[in-house]
Amino acid sequence: MGESKARILVVDDDGDILDLLKYNFQKEGFRVKTIDDSSRTVKVAMKFSPDLIILDVMMPKPDGLEICEQLRSIPSFSDTYIFFLTARPGNVFQSTALRSGGDDYIEKLMGLRSLLYKVKSVLKQNIVIQKRVAEIHTGQLHLLRSTQEVIFRNTKVAVDAVEFEMLFFFAQNSGRIITTDMLVHSISGTEIELQENSVEVYIAGLTRKLSPDMIRRLDKRKFRFGR
Length: 227
Fold this sequence. Notes:
By secondary structure, the protein is α/β, with parallel strands linked by helices. Helix content is about 40%, strand content about 25%.
């Protein structure tokens, strides 16, 4: 983002949430604009040109899902990060949010810390978090988001939800140095809560199921996917 401050637009009908996020994001050096009337979102976004948009899912019409679809239909927002914030956890809502064009789906009560970390990761470190991507092909590895399938060397590999999210995150950031903290916070926030002391266990499981060289340890807390 260079020397200019990255811009964040937050849309929520809960004033307390808006104040909390605005305070924390501004403390991190971001330019922040908040909206409590969802009907103004597209107009404000066009003028503000945010680098990242946070939408509450459950708002009076239009709700967050409708706004996301409207934004994605505008070419200038086709690649803008859109994170959903919700008080209603659940895989059904998460799948719907991602299909509408959202990049991630985070719980208000349990995931605010992860939200702050994810925002800093994508805007300051250029880490990729785009769960709306339907599938990833890299080398002999094929990942399908909708079914959470992992296919390696033309063979389906059984993985659990945490393993899939971890592998998806690694694959989207192939070649980058990924820390334990990045994994914990970038994967957590909804149904999945990854603990720091379990990261190595999951990575060991993935390399055992796939290939010892797929995820390489650089030191105690750093890893790299791919060569």
